[in-house]
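Section 4.2 – Deliverable D4.2 (structural model, holo form)

The reporting period included a commitment to supply a predicted holo structure for the target in complex with adenosine-5'-triphosphate. Inputs used:
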Amino acid sequence: MSNVISFNDVSLRFGGVQALKNVSFEIEENSLFAIIGPNGAGKTSILNCINGIYKPTSGSINIFDQDSKDLHPDNIANLGVSRTFQNIELFENMTALDNILIGAHRHVDYGPVRSLLFSKKVRQEEEKARKISEDVIDFLEIEEYRYSYILSLPYGIQKRIELARALAMQPKVLLLDEPAAGMNNEETEDIARFILDVHEELGITVVLIDHDMNMVMDIATDVVVMDFGEKLFQGDPQEAAKNQKVIDAYLGVG
Ligand SMILES: Nc1ncnc2c1ncn2[C@@H]1O[C@H](COP(=O)(O)OP(=O)(O)OP(=O)(O)O)[C@@H](O)[C@H]1O
Ligand SMILES: [Mg+2]
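Output (structure tokens):
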């Protein structure tokens, strides 16, 4: 098994706030790698470091064996890393399909001049983007919302459409920041099943942040537990649930 991402002694500071403190771990190809921990523990900061929005204050991050310090967020996306956000970031006044097409367009190859000419090649690329989008729509079972405007859709469906847009980028690694946040039990079970399908059927490496220990224990292959910017535990999800330091962090002790 090879590593797709490694954190090597990564620290991240914002003025007086130490968001990450000497964090090291490796994410293996084809794992479903969960990151859990209390509020402010540094979980989102890890995802922002992976996709290049934040650069470590010290330490280094490798993505597909490349040092990320030289990589712009666009370069990292082009290496095959896509994500969803803790707060949904969709175009609210556009339809579900149009939002998903934006993801798929990352894969099609045409420059501004060629699109002006509207050549045969552009039409073919457009068809390819539509095909990718329709496949994702089938996969996530959102056919009925295709032409709905984002604003008109229930929160749980909006979250699924954001997942669809990330999948339409045909990533090798998918970063999910609290995909089940704010969902009811049924919606949480649905999204957990889709995340498992993405991992098992599409073979995508998934990095999943969640607060919900139960969901993580159900679906993750590996877990890192963060607390106050530090890695408290790494290993098997079932072991995490039994670990005293983890239990204390969750109870707000220690
Ligand atoms: N851009 C920023 N500027 C200043 N401080 C930041 C920034 N991003 C994160 N932080 C701080 O870094 C720490 C870790 O934040 P982070 O968002 O990574 O936590 P989290 O584990 O995702 O929390 P939550 O569960 O609430 O989403 C917090 O103290 C936060 O306020
Ligand atoms: Mg967060």
